[in-house]
UniProtKB/TrEMBL annotation:
Keywords: Signal. The keyword Signal applies. The keyword rRNA-binding does not apply. Residues 1-19 form the signal peptide. GO terms for biological process: proteolysis. It comes from the Eukaryota. The active site is at 74, 261. Residues 56-377 form the Peptidase A1 domain. This is Peptidase A1 domain-containing protein. It holds the Pfam family Asp. Gene3D superfamilies: Acid Proteases. InterPro entries: Aspartic_peptidase_A1, Pepsin-like_dom, PEPTIDASE_A1, Peptidase_aspartic_dom_sf. One of its GO terms (molecular function) is aspartic-type endopeptidase activity.
């Protein structure tokens, strides 16, 4: 959901991934795989909008009989978390909660842990400890888009920090490039190992996740692919330069790795990049001290500012291509603590570069797990 780059989560999942690899390589080849192929399936998405587009989320069911829940499909995390009925007032906004005791297929994992998420949405600041879930481990049957996977690892949320309680959805479904959990279960059943995302502004509507394929009706022109920069479990690609209104700086004009995160609404850059990019938009954009990592400007000054941000990537065929955020994304709304100051698009967090929904909603995006690449085309609206 937000964001969801959790360092703790990353570490524990790396360990789990390594164990999987060992298990697979030790397994003796058995009969040839007889896969029945599953057709791609479209999952409609709702937009959580609060001054700006924050998150896109859709329906899943968990349990037997199925309990309907909503989750953010979050390319910046790995696992499935859903609010449980055990989470009381801390989950008061999550109208749809999962009751494991009413599911005949739930298996209690018997462990409690916390998951910390790294960034927030909208006018939220980027600071630690704002986004922490207290969860219990378990497995259950999960359905999405008409397909069902049994024994999916999941976390039931039994407590959460207040920032999470703003959310209108029940949880988060991670969709990292290391297929795991629900997505891996679908791939095991023969679903092609990729998904397409059509994340749109609320005014456009019709947002959609296509599991196992690409919805060619949702974009124009052709897809341009870039290789993932690493196999480290993030959707990350290298950009050679960032330009703001056609201008750059020595910091901005250098190779940097960017994580593409459908669960982060804005842009997060290392401070050296964020300071330069914000200065190129306006010297009036300044760090907002009450919310470390966030920047703001008097709301009266923001509407006329040009803020076109170009990220230059390299296609698989070796050509430069830009992914561009238009000026309309600059203003993400007034701060809660000072409504005459408007938060601007770019936040800073040391050592972290994240491209979120504010760019993704201007493109159709393809998240190709099997070929470890990301594809982009102009949104067809
Ligand atoms: C989720 O399911 C509910 C109830 O079936 C339905 O009203 C809603 O439109 C669905 N949401 C999306 C985004 O499809
Ligand atoms: C990308 O954007 C930069 C800065 O605006 C521009 O100089 C460059 O020509 C663009 N590259 C492409 C391939 O469009
Ligand atoms: C901004 O905050 C002030 C003081 O809390 C309040 O009186 C005013 O109505 C708010 N304005 C808006 C547009 O929310």
């Amino acid at each position: 959901m937000r964001a969801a780059i959790s360092l703790g989560l990353l570490a524990s999942l790396t360990a789990a991934g390594a164990a999987d690899v060992i298990k697979l390589s030790a397994r003796k080849p058995t009969a040839p795989l007889k896969r029945r192929s599953l057709q791609p399936t479209n999952v409609p998405l709702d937009d959580f909008f609060l001054n700006t587009d924050l998150q896109w989320y859709g329906n899943i069911t968990v349990g037997t009989p199925p309990q309907e829940l909503t989750v953010v499909f979050d390319t910046g995390s790995f696992t499935l978390e859903v609010a449980s009925v055990q989470c009381g007032s801390a989950c008061s906004n999550q109208k749809l909660k999962y009751d494991p005791s009413k599911s005949s297929t739930y298996v209690d994992g018997g462990q409690q842990t916390t998951l910390a998420f790294g960034t927030g949405v909208g006018v939220d600041p980027v600071v630690n400890n704002d986004y922490v879930l207290t969860v219990e481990t378990g497995t259950d049957t999960v359905s999405v888009g008409g397909y069902t996977v049994e024994n999916v690892d999941l976390y039931t949320i039994v407590d959460q920090t207040p920032k999470f309680n703003l959310d209108p959805f029940s949880g988060i479904q991670g969709l990292s490039p290391e297929a795991q959990g629900l997505f891996q279960g679908l791939v095991n059943q023969g679903l092609p190992s990729l998904f397409g995302m059509y994340l749109t502004a609320q005014s456009v509507g019709g947002a959609e996740l296509t599991l196992g394929g690409i919805d060619t009706s949702k974009y124009s022109g052709s897809l341009t692919y870039t290789d993932l920069a690493s196999s480290g479990g993030n959707w990350e690609a290298s950009a050679s330069s960032i330009a703001v209104n056609g201008q750059t700086s020595s910091n901005l004009n250098s190779n940097q790795v960017f994580i593409f995160d459908s669960g982060t609404s804005n842009i997060v850059l290392d401070p050296s990049l964020a300071d330069d990019a914000n200065a190129l938009i306006s010297p009036d954009i300044q760090p907002f001290s009450a919310e470390p990592g966030a920047y703001g400007i008097p709301c009266s000054k923001i509407s006329s500012l040009p803020a076109v941000i170009d990220f230059t990537f390299t296609s698989q065929s070796g050509n430069a291509f830009n992914l561009t955020i238009p000026s309309s994304e600059l203003n993400v709304g007034p701060f809660d603590s000072d409504n005459s100051t408007c938060q601007t698009l770019i936040n800073s967090l040391s050592g972290t570069n994240i491209i979120g929904g504010s760019l993704l909603k201007h493109y159709y995006s393809v998240w190709d797990v099997g070929q470890q690449r990301l594809g982009f085309a102009a949104n067809g609206h």
